[in-house]
Amino acid sequence: LQLAERFIREESAFYTPPKPDRIAEDFVFRGPTVGPLCKRDYLTTLGTFEVYKAFPDIQPNPFGFVIDPDNPRLVRFFVRNTGTNDGPFGLGNGISIPSTGREVRGATEAFSILFDSNNLVKMLTVGYVCDRFEGNTFGLGAALGLMNVVGLPIKPGPLYNFTTWLNNRVLGLPAKTVSAPEDVP
Fold it and tell me: Among 28, 51, 156, 167, fewest CB within 10 Å belongs to which?
């Protein structure tokens, strides 16, 4: 439980600068509309957004840590993001959304972290919103919720699906929503 809390608070690349040595080489990231991402694409995508700079006071406010009864290496818990957009939100290729000063009060999200036998993070799932009417992220979790708070109205649906396909398969911009199948362990 302590490894999971330390990772989410101090090592995830979302709330703080990345600590790649805490992430397994066969790492996979998954969310409701993003993923699977391999380690390289996860770190590149979060390095593009630099959420911890866009929201310098961002806190995950994690709670409810439990070990999954069917897998002793899997920890499940909740987060409820809070913070203020006092820095630019990176989108890639030198493009960013200027700071807005807006505060985020995220909806409660379900997360999980799977550790390998060396206690490295092998899988991270995030963004599964428990109550879409809670907070000010328009019912979205993780980076999509934050993007909506800073004024980038991204919503899952046909347009989102097309633009992410265009980025991932044609334009090859640094921030990905899915890794190439051959890159996912």
Answer: 156
